[in-house]
């Protein structure tokens, strides 16, 4: 078919190759675009952040109540994490990382969200200590253990 293109007056020999190459590039871009769309449709939950709170290994009615309270903030937290505005520190608390990536109108809400989440986490650490009859002086160890649990259960990009 390339030889036929070369014989027509509108496509001189050099021009036929350019048309063929350009068409091939467009075809490859189309295939890559469709593959990307397929990935977005089929794989969002495997690589995306989960909409669940990572519960500690210990359970108790007070801890379950705190987990339920935290569950209401998960989507908002994940949205800010995706914007690189939030992250977790080594004390298993949430902290603001890049406030510049958040519109001015949402910054106050972000700060309130972080305060509420960290307050619930602190309450959860104390509830874990109470449930296990552990002295409050061991809170740093409880935080560290929970931080390790978060790292182990984290998904890519979390």
List the helices and strands and how they pair.
Layout: H1 2-7, H2 13-42, H3 44-47, H4 61-71, H5 74-82, E1 86-88, E2 94-96, H6 104-131, H7 139-153
Antiparallel strand pairs: 1-2
Helix pairs in contact: 4-6
Kindly summarize this structure in a few lines:
With 158 residues, the protein is mainly α.
Protein model, in words:
Helix content is 65%, strand content 4%. It is built from seven helices and two strands, in the order αααααββαα. The longest helix is centred in the first third of the chain and has 30 residues, at 13-42. Mean pLDDT is 77; it is low at 37-49.
Low-confidence stretches: 37-49
- Number of helical regions: 7
Distance between the termini: 51 Å
- Radius of gyration computed on alpha carbons: 26 Å
> How is the main sheet built?
2 strands, antiparallel
Mean pLDDT: 77
What strand order characterises the main sheet? 1-2
Which structural class do the helices and strands define?
Answer: mainly alpha
SSE sequence, one letter per element: HHHHHEEHH
The amount of helix comes to 55-70%
Task: Please report the total strand number as a whole number.
Answer: 2
Shape: globular
| Strand percent estimate | under 5%
